[in-house]
C-alpha cells in the first residue's frame, strides 16, 4: 500500500492520501488530543507528542504538526501509523463512540425563513464550488449562517490557522459568493 502526501497552503499541515475512502460521509476534525478519544488512529497520532491536529476527509487525512516539529522528522511517523491502520483494516472509530459527528454538525446560527432562497443559493455554491476546492488543500468549510448580508462559515483541517486562509476567505470565497448572490455583502469566519 502506498500513502501519498501533499503539502497544503498551511505549512504546518500535510494531506495524506491512502488511496481509499477514509470517511464515507461528512468530515471529522480533531483539534486536540481530548477530542480524538473516539478514534484510535487520531489518538495514536496525538500520542506522538508531535501533532497539533488531525482532520478526516472523504479520501484523505490532514495532520498538523506541533510548533517547532519538522516534517522531516514527523512524516515517517505519520506514514507508519497510517499504513498500520489501513493495512490491518482497523476501525476508524471506537464502537459506541460519537463517530458520526461531522463538521457540518457544529452549532450554527438560526437562519431567517425570509432568506431561504438566498441561503439555498449560498449552500449550493459552498457544496458544489467551495468545499471541493478546499478539500483539495486538505480541509473543509461549513456553512454556519446568514444574517443581514453576512455569510458565516467555519474552517477546519488545513484551512484552520493557515496563513493564507484570511486571504482565501475574502478574495476567493467571498468574491465567488458575492458574484452569484448579490445580496451577500461579506463572508466571515467563525
From TrEMBL:
Signal peptide: none
SUPFAM superfamilies the UniProt entry points to: Fe-S cluster assembly (FSCA) domain-like (SSF117916), Hypothetical protein SAV1430 (SSF110836)
GO BP annotation list: iron-sulfur cluster assembly
Region Disordered, annotated ranges: 1-36
Any Pfam family: NifU
GO molecular function: iron ion binding; iron-sulfur cluster binding
Scaffold protein Nfu/NifU N-terminal domain location: 3-89
Domain of life of the source: Bacteria
Residue ranges, compositional bias (Polar residues): 1-11
InterPro entries: FSCA_dom_sf (IPR034904), Nfu/NifU_N (IPR014824), Nfu/NifU_N_sf (IPR036498), NFU1-like (IPR035433), NIF_FeS_clus_asmbl_NifU_C (IPR001075)
Family: Belongs to the NifU family.
Protein name according to UniProt: NifU family protein
Source organism per UniProt: Sphingomonas sabuli
The organism's taxonomic lineage, starting at the top: Bacteria, Pseudomonadati, Pseudomonadota, Alphaproteobacteria, Sphingomonadales
Amino acid at each position: 500500500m502506498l500513502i501519498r502526501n501533499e503539502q497544503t497552503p498551511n505549512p504546518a499541515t500535510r494531506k495524506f492520501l491512502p488511496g481509499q475512502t477514509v470517511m464515507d460521509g461528512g468530515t471529522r476534525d480533531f483539534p486536540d488530543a481530548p477530542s480524538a478519544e473516539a478514534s484510535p488512529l487520531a489518538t495514536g497520532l496525538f500520542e506522538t507528542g508531535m501533532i497539533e491536529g488531525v482532520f478526516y476527509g472523504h479520501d484523505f487525512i490532514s495532520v498538523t504538526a506541533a510548533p517547532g516539529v519538522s516534517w522531516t522528522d514527523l512524516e515517517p511517523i505519520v506514514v507508519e501509523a497510517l499504513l498500520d491502520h489501513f493495512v490491518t483494516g482497523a476501525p476508524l472509530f471506537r464502537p459506541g463512540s460519537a463517530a458520526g459527528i461531522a463538521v457540518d454538525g457544529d452549532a450554527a446560527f438560526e437562519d431567517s425563513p425570509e432568506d431561504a432562497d438566498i441561503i439555498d443559493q449560498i449552500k449550493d455554491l459552498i457544496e458544489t464550488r467551495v468545499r471541493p476546492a478546499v478539500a483539495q488543500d486538505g480541509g473543509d468549510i461549513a456553512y454556519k449562517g446568514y444574517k443581514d448580508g453576512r455569510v458565516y462559515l467555519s474552517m477546519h483541517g488545513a484551512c484552520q490557522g493557515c496563513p493564507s486562509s484570511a486571504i482565501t476567505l475574502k478574495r476567493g470565497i467571498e468574491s465567488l459568493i458575492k458574484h452569484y448572490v448579490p445580496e451577500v455583502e461579506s463572508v466571515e469566519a467563525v
